[in-house]
Write a structure and sequence with these properties.
This protein has 65 residues and is α+β, with helices and mostly antiparallel strands. The chain has a domain at 22-65. Helix content is 28%, strand content 31%. The two termini are 23 Å apart.
Length: 65
């Protein structure tokens, strides 16, 4: 299974927390849905970028490729 890194920063701490997790799209949607505040997702441009964009667009405020 392929893993993905999730980095999270809050406006209060400005500390970046990074976790490495399996790339299960259902679990990632649940994770993103439960994050409070403004949600900006950054995706590396690859062959699956369009698919990831389509999967996350309704769960986030902005996507950066």
């Amino acid at each position: 299974m392929i893993n993905m890194a999730i980095a999270r920063m809050t406006t209060k701490s400005h500390t970046i927390t990074v976790i490495d997790v399996p790339s299960d799209i259902v679990e990632r949607k649940v994770y993103v849905k439960n994050v409070s505040g403004t949600k900006i997702v950054t995706i590396e441009e690859t062959t699956i970028t369009q698919w990831l964009y389509a999967e996350f667009i309704e769960y986030v405020d902005k996507i950066v490729i």
